[in-house]
Amino acid sequence: MDPIEELASHLRGAWQPGDGPTQSLFNPATQEAIAVVRPARELANALAFARDVGGASLRALTRKQRGELLQSAAKVLHEHREELIELAVRNGGNTRSDAKFDIDGATGVLSAYAELAGTLGDSPWLVDGEAVSLTRSGKVKVQHVLVPRHGVAVHINAFNFPAWGMIGKAAVAWLAGMPVLSKPATSTCWVAHRIAAILLEGKLLPEGALQLLVGPVGDLLDHLGPQDVVAFTGSADTGAKIRGHANVLRHGVRINVEADSLNAVIIGSDVSPGTELFDLVVRDCVTEITQKAGQKCTATRRILVPEHLLEAVRIALVERLDDIAARTGNPADPQVRMGPLATDQQLHDGRNGVHVLTADARVVRGDTGRTVFMGAADAKGWFLEPILLEATSAAALEPRAGFHRREVFGPVATLLPYDGSFARAAQIVAAGGGSLVSTVYSDDRDISSRATLELGAFLGRLVIAGEKIAAASFSPGLVFPQAAHGGPGRAGSGEELGGVRALALYSQRTAVQAGAAQLAKFSETHAG
Ligand code: NAP
Q1: What are the pocket residues of ligand 1 if the criterion is a CB atom closer than 6 Å to any ligand atom?
Q2: Which of 79, 170, 443, 503 is an S-S bond match for 466, by CB 3.0 to 4.6 Å?
Q3: What is the percentage of the chain residues whose pLDDT exceeds 70?
């Protein structure tokens, strides 16, 4: 058995041993403890170090230099890709393919923001729109600008994407000129720990630009100030605690929350079995149910099927999911297609969640009680095989039904039959209370404007897939740095990524009101 390693936090410029009770990290396929963490101390000093040292040094760099820093970080992390994949398999229960999705996603965001940096000029602020006259004479104008905030970007991440979650947020904050204190979810923090070690020991970032807090969040939020930003990804419950934290409220700390989501797929009534579009629907649904064992915020949870297609869709999905169920197991075995859930708590919640869904839908494939899995010791490992449920058309319209309220964070989705009308489909999607992404599969020529108008308010991202782009289409759970990620309501009402838009979270939008001559000089002096 490998020795148990203790993972330290990196705070105030050095690795800091923790103090207090240990928490273990496990291999979720074997339940073997593989590392421990302990609570960190002096978090107020860590925040001060970031503000005083990290913020000042990042703001002293030009935007082009910050972009170069992102590119070097992408290159170095890519060089360590194999090592990171192995850690993700061991600590996250990821298959190699799942691990690549996370790690390549992280380097992809770094590269995308490095490229963007090259297009934004080198002014210390970003000009936001044109200067607008406030008087008829045009002598007094207002110009909006984005300037970097002088606080710390505190990043609190979920367990499912330890690499992309950490780096996707950090790349944007660094480009905006803010130092980062990153707190990964404890259960899978080894990948984030290794990424921090690679970047810090390789001296790729200015001093204080990155700190890593492993273990519990402790009293961190008590020490946040008015220039700080918290970007949180995780459950709606934890998001609500952070939002309602007394010190956060007192100082008006800026908060971005990315939380649960009941993403939907709408299969248009014009889709027919035997077409490329039908095959795409099935392929995407299977990917979005089983990739990362369904532990993806963008995974498909609700599949809206026109009543006349219900049987064909059910048969096709069950066949493909059966195949993955047969190869669910320990991802150390290369034949395995789907790994375990990340923790025993996730398995407990997943089984319990399926039970809740069965109040309004019946299970048409899968067994939450299965205990024998490929390459896994009998009854060891936190496995949940793919589960497909099916509701009736009447239940699908019930906004209080479990599938519109409960995100089961595992390989679980529900078929929701509907009458094929877009109005009905939109009503069902909206019942989810706000989602990160939903996808419409249809060749109806008016679908994009109709879907945008009727679904847009309920979604962070709308994907429209038709026969013509079937071969080139991306599975809807894939988040591109160019597209905004976030969603209203249940999904947290946050927004990240989306190219240059993301910099706003880490900047103050200031309306500079002055004489026209002064503002002209201002843009002459500082335009990039
Ligand atoms: P979680 O239990 O809410 O934990 C998220 C993070 O918050 C962890 O780092 C956790 O640290 C920390 N935390 C726990 N209690 C806290 C507190 N009182 N104050 C501040 N931070 C605290 O969520 P999870 O189980 O890791 O992630 C699963 C959830 O994340 C799912 O619901 C999923 O939908 C959501 N998610 C959303 C997105 C998105 O972009 N919208 C992406 C991925 C996941 P410890 O681990 O140390 O407890």
Answers
A1: 156-160, 183, 185-187, 216-217, 233-235, 238, 241-242, 258-261, 297, 407, 409, 436, 491-492
A2: 443
A3: 98
